[in-house]
Amino acid sequence: MKNILFSLILATFLVTSTKAEDNVVAVIDGYQTLFLLQHGAAFIDNRPQHKFARGHIHGAVNLPYYTPDHSTNIMSKDNLAVALGGKDVAVFYCSGALRAYQAIRQAQEWGFTLPMYWYRNGWAEWQLLTLGPASESVAADSDQQE
């Protein structure tokens, strides 16, 4: 029953999320991001490691990505598969630039077919919505409620 409800809500996301300019990447806002965090989506942080170390969305995996074949990329097909860990949905984010968008496009080219969302406003907005370190407690509280 819980999976059916989650699937119905996820379908709503597909209808209400906007698309990037190229109509290939679904864009979500902070509230949709929070919902997906509370319901167990995989979170991929595409920012550089030093930024991730200063703060990130609770439970996110740091897979830095810039553009295809860039020397600073940590995200590889294998690393991404491990980070997704069999989850049904993934949210990619960065500082609010294009790293996460580029990462989703790369994942699509590699053949990943699960729903992947771009939290376009990324870490910058997340800190405002959750008052910074509170993002850790928001996620912890949601874990305790389930």
Fold topology:
Blueprint: H1 2-16, E1 18-19, E2 26-28, H2 30-38, E3 42-45, H3 49-54, E4 61-62, H4 77-84, E5 90-93, H5 99-110, E6 116-119, H6 122-130, H7 134-145
Parallel strand pairs: 2-6, 3-4, 3-5, 5-6
Antiparallel strand pairs: 1-2
Description:
There is one protein chain. The protein is an alpha/beta fold and about 150 residues long. The chain has a single domain, classed as Rhodanese-like domain (Oxidized Rhodanese, domain 1, 3-Layer(aba) Sandwich), CATH 3.40.250. The chain contains 7 helices and 6 strands. It has helices spanning about 1-15, 30-40, 50-55, 75-85, 100-110, 120-130, 135-145; strands at about 20, 25-30, 40-45, 60, 90-95, 115-120.
Order of strands, main sheet, comes to 1-2-6-5-3-4
Please indicate the percent range of residues in DSSP E strands (runs of 2 or more). Answer: 5-15%
Low-confidence stretches: 1-8, 133-146
- CATH level-4 homologous superfamily: Rhodanese-like domain
Give me the count of strands: 6
| End-to-end C-alpha gap | 14 Å
Task: Give the % helix.
Answer: 40-55%
Our count of domains comes out at 1
Number of helices: 7
- SSE series: HEEHEHEHEHEHH
CATH class: Alpha Beta
Instruction: Describe the largest sheet.
Output: 6 strands, mixed
Mean pLDDT: 82
